[in-house]
Amino acid sequence: QLQENQDEIENMMNAIFKGVFVHRYRDAIAEIRAICIEEIGIWMKMYSDAFLNDSYLKYVGWTMHDKQGEVRLKCLTALQGLYYNKELNSKLELFTSRFKDRIVSMTLDKEYDVAVQAIKLLTLVLQSSEEVLTAEDCENVYHLVYSAHRPVAVAAGEFLYKKLFSRRDPEDDGILKRRGRQSPNANLVKTLVFFFLESELHEHAAYLVDSMWDCATDLLKDWECMNSLLLEEPLNGEEPLTDRQESALIEIMLCTIRQAAECHPPVGRGTGKRVWSQ
């Protein structure tokens, strides 16, 4: 009897889906399209055994091309709810491979709210499986740390931090209490310098620092480590910083001190109309 009841309920849900959702997710009114996507996201999250498969996910994927920003936004927030649950990751692999390029392109969406949520979704994708995103995919997000729009830049800063700065070598556990040049932050500071130089936007160190300030404050405020890298002799087997790298580190260090003292974003960064500048 339980099985019969379950079958009956699933038949009713399928009838509702085919009779209502399939027609209304393309409704002429954007608000109705947004409601449809929001609800199917809830269905897939609450009843993943029945709804979390490509037969239903594809509707969210298709709707990411919707002409209205509010609808595209609902697609991304619905997907975030799914990717956040690591137990569901295996069921999302096909969807990810099929629609990943679209999500990456949405990081440059003309609607800032959509761009921010696209970056946050890619951060969740990154945490679920690092192999999914190619180096080119990541590069497209990295550049956004120089965006003139702060929410976009901060979201990109968190993505950058999770990708390049959050992994720690198990061997570091034994040197966590070491300071200066021998601290675990030393390699991370160098990574930041290398990234800054490779991005070739050398007049925008303040933008880079501001983008990562919320997620990497401890690293950016480790001035003792930065001083040690500049003043102390390299450890055995360690490559010394070049003059160019030292100059970049000094510039980054000055920007972190200014950020800590002034507590506001650099000039030119706010909620303006441009998505990103270089």
Can you walk through the features of this model?
This is STAG2 protein. One of its GO terms (cellular component) is nucleus. Belongs to the SCC3 family. Residues 21-106 form the SCD domain. The chain is mainly alpha-helical. The chain folds into two domains: 9-164, Leucine-rich Repeat Variant (Alpha Horseshoe); 177-268, no CATH class. 64% of the residues lie in helices and 0% in strands. The protein contains 14 helices and no strands. Helix 2 (30-46) packs antiparallel against helix 4, helix 5 (69-83) packs parallel to helix 7 and helix 7 runs parallel beside helix 9 (150-165). The radius of gyration is 23 Å and the shape is elongated. The model is unreliable at 273-278 (pLDDT under 50).
Topology:
Blueprint: H1 2-24, H2 30-46, H3 48-51, H4 54-63, H5 69-83, H6 93-105, H7 112-128, H8 135-142, H9 150-165, H10 185-199, H11 205-212, H12 217-220, H13 223-231, H14 243-262
Short summary:
By secondary structure, this protein is mainly alpha-helical. It has helices at 2-24, 30-46, 48-51, 54-63, 69-83, 93-105, 112-128, 135-142, 150-165, 185-199, 205-212, 217-220, 223-231, 243-262. It folds into two domains: 9-164, Leucine-rich Repeat Variant; 177-268, no CATH class.
